[in-house]
Design a protein that fits this description.
The chain is mainly β. It has no helices and 28 strands. The two termini are 32 Å apart.
């Protein structure tokens, strides 16, 4: 998945102290989704782990939502065919894992009932332009937000006029990411191709309460690390951590390669670990305390990559939020392969892999 028109500039750099390697990681499972006939791309654009850490879903170019159970890998529990390529997936809060939202390349946001495997809600309010990201409010899970190539971020509520827009912000450039704060507040973070990230209070969608201006190219992801800290990822090849209260840049993270593609960003909020992919076909893990990676894993091909002419890259990343001294990270590649990584603190017994 290529990025929308990132301006060609160099990333800034920040000196940090040397990181401490406090975690052991290893590959605990591999799931292959081979390219059909070697011609149809199966690049994974999104991976989402459910709140209980028992299931994860994948979506991408292949027009399928695949649902997996961590206890029955590598088998796929079931999949749902979708009418368009997928860019975003979200488990709907409060649905007991039975409802999933998706956003696609045709500009449509759809909710699926996972028990019937049928769509139950659909909205097409982005003029047919690709929707890069959607999310649900943790404060009111019925409410959702979406960001699109049409340059708008829209908040919508199915209870009002069939899901019509209840608030809209126009940015004038593609909106690449939207995320509600998962901590029960009213904050919403937005990342844009104008090189900036914004934080809004959804109760007064007039002006942002914070503007993060520091990336040199498109801001592709925004993720809340805690109730006043936001991580951003840009195609300038760096991650940045910001304070929402004083708009201060706390730290810059470099090491991975990211110049034109979506490579994923996820934070494990329990222990402050940050995961992202890379155009070097590697998974990177950072600790929020240090600007250099604490672990890097090469995403070697599994079973071939069909007839791809371009080198592979890691395109999606998601942590399970379950655990404290043990963790699970799921990564997906441009070849459709999913790898599950298990981690433990080094002070504990080594991981059995």
């Amino acid at each position: 998945m290529n990025h929308p028109n990132p301006p060609p500039q160099n990333p800034d750099q920040e000196q940090t102290s040397s990181p401490k390697f406090e975690w052991d990681f290893c590959v605990s499972a591999v799931v292959s989704s081979p390219v059909t006939g070697g011609h149809i791309s199966d690049t994974l654009g999104v991976i989402e782990v459910n709140s209980s850490g028992t299931l994860f879903a994948t979506g991408g170019i292949a027009r399928k939502i695949r649902i997996y159970n961590f206890n029955s890998l590598p088998a796929c529990e079931f999949y749902i065919f979708t009418p368009a390529k997928l860019s975003s997936l979200k488990w709907k809060p409060g649905s007991a894992g039975k409802t999933m939202g998706s956003a696609d390349y045709d500009g449509v946001v759809t909710e699926y009932d996972l028990e019937t495997q049928m769509p139950v809600f659909e909205r097409d309010e982005h003029s047919g332009k690709r929707v890069w990201s959607m999310d649900y409010s943790s404060h009111d899970p019925v409410v959702g937000a979406s960001g699109s190539d049409d340059g708008t971020m829209q908040i919508w509520d199915p209870r009002h006029d069939g899901g019509k827009c209840v608030a809209m912000v126009q940015f004038g450039s593609p909106v690449c990411c939207v995320e509600f704060s998962p901590f029960g507040g009213r904050l919403l973070a937005v990342g844009c191709a104008d090189r900036k990230a914004y934080v809004y209070d959804v109760r007064k969608m007039v002006d942002p309460i914070a503007v993060f201006d520091g990336h040199q190219r498109t801001v592709s992801y925004t993720r809340f690390l805690d109730d006043r800290t936001v991580m951003t990822s840009g195609t300038d090849g760096c991650l940045k951590m910001w304070n929402t209260e004083d708009q201060r840049l706390i730290r810059t993270y470099t090491g991975h390669t990211n110049q034109k593609r979506f490579v994923g960003l996820s934070v494990w909020r329990n222990q402050g670990l940050i995961g992202c992919g890379s155009e070097s076909n590697q998974v990177f893990v950072y600790d929020k305390r240090w600007g250099e990676p604490i672990w890097v894993h090469g995403f070697e091909p599994e079973g071939g990559t069909g007839t791809r002419s371009e080198p592979g890259f890691v395109s999606s990343i998601c942590w399970s939020q379950v655990g404290d001294d043990e963790c699970t990270l799921v990564g997906g590649g441009s070849d459709g392969v999913v790898k599950i990584f298990s981690g433990k603190r080094k002070a504990l017994t080594s991981v059995n892999c």
